[in-house]
């Protein structure tokens, strides 16, 4: 028997944002059972919380319906809120397979029986490389050409960024999911915007997600991608709206800072716990 919570990440109201299922006290659960539960939940990710192994407050494993991730944004942001409510802490150091990451919760408040708070998180420094299958990817997405070089940012999940010329083109995208599924271990992030305001859509058959409502692990990398190519500047906080076409609008904040050849990435947004229950297994 395991208690769990459902948290909508990157939203301050129910029925919006990107939901994650957070399971507590999972030290005795085997990996294959976690994977099967994640598949049964039919959410883009589920997380499983256990005792810390490396000096953090907790250890968290993240599963899509088809595989495990070393790091992911919206699942960890939602998990941070659920843990804060459970442990009574406003700062948390969460262990994942990619390392230990600090989370800070601010301004928690009740909306009826739900609790909402703003959460900031540090993100892993990515490994960046040119994507070698650009032509096939653009064809699968239905994008004639990218406004910036098509590059991959590996932060655990591997994000490939494709710039789209107009919001109308971005909203109208209907990718060929079968062709996109030939691109293994990656998510395609299509983006458009100016200044501080950006829109994004994410497609990833490889991660078992036709489309994602909020890809928090891509918020910092998008800010970095734009700054590296001179579209914005380092140290500028971007507002990123995602999930509009899915009817689940999600608002994220992304920030990239440069220190010589090293980068520091941050993301933030609201989360709201909307449900809790017990899973009998």
From TrEMBL:
GO terms for molecular function: isomerase activity. The active site is at 45. Pfam families: PhzC-PhzF. InterPro entries: Phenazine_PhzF-like. SUPFAM superfamilies: Diaminopimelate epimerase-like (SSF54506). One of its GO terms (cellular component) is cytoplasm. It comes from the Bacteria. PANTHER family: ANTISENSE-ENHANCING SEQUENCE 1, PHENAZINE BIOSYNTHESIS PROTEIN. Belongs to the PhzF family. This is Phenazine antibiotic biosynthesis protein. It comes from Pectobacterium atrosepticum (strain SCRI 1043 / ATCC BAA-672) (Erwinia carotovora subsp. atroseptica).
